[in-house]
Input
Amino acid sequence: VPAGVDNGTRIRLAGEGEAGMLGGPRGNLYVVISVEDHPEFVRDEFDIHLELPITIAQATLGATVEIPTLGGGAESFDIPAGTQTGKSFRKAGMGIARLQRSGRGDMIVTVKLVTPTDLTEEQEMLVRQLAESLGDEVNEPRRGLLDRILRPE
Output
């Protein structure tokens, strides 16, 4: 099977079909390709799309992270400081081999900001300090059950 085939690609194998009538030549065999979905990449013709989860710190300050490649390895990827969620980056030539042509498609990496959900008290305090320094309005700290019993408002 040649590199770059997609769902529905039909490959003709000349002379590999059923035997002809009355001793005639064999017919052709047609194979219709069905490509499985990849667990990390979404295919768009010869380009592949990757959704890359990043943290608030990585988006704000920038980072170098490892991203998977089609060959099963990994490659370094630079996230610029100030990257917004949903921002897409194009990595030329890291996509799928072009069928019957030279070259490869591209990899489109779209970053997705992952918001932390289980912060320690210290981490929450640091985020609150950051919000205050940026002038952001945020909810008051949540009070636990014991705190509400011992110090009612």
